[in-house]
């Protein structure tokens, strides 16, 4: 049972995205999106910011979407979802229109890290502040992959991209990954959760919770990119798993109760909290990715690897303190 949804029921539901899309082999975006759409309750409307998911699922005159779907601009997926939700509420109030009869409509905005951390942040912040009832899904592949693998606010420190190339003087991106989850949580919204495709039941369970809360919900998925991260396409789930096992990307939920954020670890992150010795070194995660190749050859940069490990350890400790 997954928050009122059995695994069999989820498996039997038609796919919200058909397999006839043109995303790269090994891409994690449709894996996550299909899991999330399995958790929907009834009428569903999706919108996607410009990005890999949008471009590869809607090449004219074809579409891979098996539900009502709107392409919004790079910066306004959250604003588009706000408009959909406002129109639905107006139809319910007036008692007329195609959505007037429905008590619940699952409205989902999909966007990448470029359309969330950077270009779309103001639209997202405004939608959260106004309290629109929708679910925002951040598909975080940690760079502007659709337009040439440029760095974003979600790109990790020391990662090599086309606009933060690793060289003798500057070893990749010089800034640390923006704490987008904490920025969102600071808005006081009902539900925030992190996701990894390596734990599909966790994804479906959290997605259903997001749909069930009244008001905005935010789902943050780590989405390895075989081209931008430079790894073999069959390693996507393995890397998704390592991101969590090293605590580079912990799995947790945050709800607001009595005006305060309440954090809860989930899945393997909860197990690591009980058995700290099971936490894997971030080295195992980094060395699988070509974007960090310069940290290992021609000579190993232990100073930078140690800095990344210290950043991971500090953030993990802060999260443990919040969980209590």
* Radius of gyration, in angstroms, nearest whole number: 19 Å
CATH class: Alpha Beta
The number of strands is 8
Series of secondary-structure elements, N-terminal to C-terminal:
HHEHEHEHHEHEHEHEEHHH
The amount of helix comes to 25-40%
Q: Biggest sheet, strands in spatial order?
A: 2-1-3-4-6-5-7-8
Structural class: alpha/beta
**Which architecture name does CATH use?**
3-Layer(aba) Sandwich
What distance lies between the first and last C-alpha atoms, to the nearest angstrom?
27 Å
Number of domains: 1
State the main characteristics.
Rossmann fold, eight-stranded mixed sheet, 12 helices, alpha/beta, 324 residues
Short account of what is shown:
With about 325 residues, the chain is α/β, with parallel strands linked by helices.
Tell me about this structure:
The chain is of the alpha/beta class and 324 residues long. It has a single domain (7-323), classed as 3-Layer(aba) Sandwich (Rossmann fold), CATH 3.40.50. It is built from twelve helices and eight strands. Strands 2-1-3-4-6-5-7-8 form an eight-stranded mixed sheet, with helices on both faces. β1 (44-48), α3 and β2 form a beta-alpha-beta unit. α2 (29-38) crosses α8 and α4 runs parallel beside α6. The protein is globular and about 70 Å long.
Write the layout of secondary structure elements.
Elements: H1 7-12, H2 29-38, E1 44-48, H3 52-57, E2 69-71, H4 77-94, E3 106-112, H5 114-118, H6 121-130, E4 135-140, H7 180-185, E5 191-196, H8 200-212, E6 217-222, H9 236-245, E7 252-257, E8 260-265, H10 267-274, H11 282-286, H12 302-323
Parallel strand pairs: 1-2, 1-3, 3-4, 4-6, 5-6
Antiparallel strand pairs: 5-7, 7-8
Helix pairs in contact: 2-8, 4-6
């Amino acid at each position: 049972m997954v928050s009122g949804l059995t695994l069999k029921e989820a498996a039997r539901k038609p796919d919200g995205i058909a397999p006839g899309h043109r995303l790269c082999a090994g891409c994690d975006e449709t894996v996550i999106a299909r899991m999330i759409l399995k958790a929907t309750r009834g009428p569903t409307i999706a919108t996607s910011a410009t990005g890999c998911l949008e471009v590869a699922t809607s090449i004219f005159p074809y579409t891979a979407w098996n539900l009502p779907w709107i392409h919004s601009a790079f910066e306004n997926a959250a604003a588009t979802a706000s408009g959909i939700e406002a129109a639905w509420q107006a139809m319910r109030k007036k008692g007329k229109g195609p959505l007037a009869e429905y008590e619940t409509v699952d409205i989902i905005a999909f966007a990448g890290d470029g359309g969330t951390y950077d270009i779309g942040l103001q639209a997202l912040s405004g939608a959260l502040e106004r309290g629109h009832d929708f679910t925002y899904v951040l598909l975080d592949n940690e760079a502007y992959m659709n337009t040439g693998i440029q760095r974003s606010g979600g790109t990790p420190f020391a990662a090599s991209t086309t606009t933060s190339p690793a060289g003798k003087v500057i070893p990749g991106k010089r800034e640390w990954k923006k704490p987008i989850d904490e920025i969102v949580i600071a808005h006081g919204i009902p539900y925030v959760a992190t996701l990894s495709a390596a734990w599909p039941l966790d994804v479906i369970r959290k997605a259903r919770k997001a749909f069930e809360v009244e008001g905005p919900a935010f789902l943050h998925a780590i989405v390895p990119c075989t081209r931008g991260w430079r790894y073999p396409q069959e390693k996507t789930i393995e890397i998704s798993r390592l991101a969590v096992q090293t605590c580079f990307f912990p799995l947790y939920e945050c709800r607001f109760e009595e005006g305060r954020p309440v954090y809860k670890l989930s899945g393997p992150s909860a197990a690591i909290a009980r058995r700290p010795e099971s936490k894997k070194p971030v080295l195992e995660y980094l060395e699988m990715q070509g974007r960090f190749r310069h940290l290992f050859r021609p000579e190993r940069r232990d100073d930078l690897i140690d800095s990344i490990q210290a950043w991971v350890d500090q953030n993990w400790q802060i999260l443990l303190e919040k969980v209590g």
